[in-house]
Amino acid sequence: MKWWGSILLMIIANVSFGQESIDFSQIDERVQSIQAAPPDTLAKQLTANYTTDLQKVRSIFKWIAEHIAYRVRVSPHSSNSYSKIAFHSETDDTSSVLKPLNERVAEGVLENGVAVCDGYARLFKTLCDYAGIRSEIITGYAKTNSNRAGAKFRANHTWNAVYIDSAWKLLDVTWASGYVSFSNDYVKNFDEFYFLTPPRSFIRDHYPEDPQWTLLSADFTIEEFKHTPFKYSGFAKYPIHSFTPSNGIIEASVGDTISVELETDDVTKDLVVSDSLFFDSTLFVQVGRKDSVQQLCKVVGKKITCSYIVASASVEWLYIIYNKEVIMRYKIAMKKNYTAAK
User: Fold this and answer.
1) Distance CA 110, CA 1 (A)
2) Could you report the per-residue pLDDT of 57-98, keeping only the tens digit for each?
3) Fold exhibited by the domain 6-227
4) Arch. (CATH architecture) of 237-341
5) What is the pTM of this model?
């Protein structure tokens, strides 16, 4: 990291990605038939037919997402709620102590077919190394549905950066591969959003220990990251330019009115503010409980505003539902004077 500076990262962060216009269907179909093999052999098989680094990276990324399953660890303290895949370190296999750690972990992942985020990231880098593609393993903090308010802010996830077309780009093969369901089962479900994600979108739920790896030209502090609302992957689907409140924690008392505003190019979409959700644990469809919604919405220009009335001291979360999809979540903190009065 010391041999190149933050200025370079700032410059390359603004390079246009453009992968949305590229058809990866043939690459994605081809990886389905390629079987696991030692890392050097697998890297050759995955990249042999391609001439560009973008094609090679897509092949490696898609193969890992399709062939490696997330290793779910059941905890007696875990809550019954959906969470993005969390962080655990892979076991260091001392039987092949002479090999680099990345390769040892990659071999174990390929042999067992399962991994946690550290294993996904090390496997991706190992295959890129054999393919002659520069990549890095990034450690940092990821916002998940299981993050608790007040929990210690520390590294809990690992992802990658890859150098393509003279620019560093971000990706997360763990989160792209699937998710852990309501019933704590791993569900394979490829998410295109986490392949070469633009930095301004990636920062919504990933903050690196080394701030240079935000790849953003403007400073974006840890405090800003910690206090913004939690954004679900659906947020990136819509042309939302701004939102208020900007702070993810809202202090309120029973009877208070909370106004939530979105600025968007498409004001015809339906906006709902709800203090509760119910979950289909099989399909994991999120739907706002209409009986919990107390709100009045209005549209002025490109802004949609909904007013929500706090009906109970038991309200903990406020969910923002746009076009029938949950896009954001706020934490409701009951005011101390109200709590003391109760």
Assistant:
1) 28
2) 999 999 999 999 998 865 444 443 334 444 444 444 544 457
3) C8orf32 fold (3.10.620)
4) Sandwich (2.60)
5) 0.63
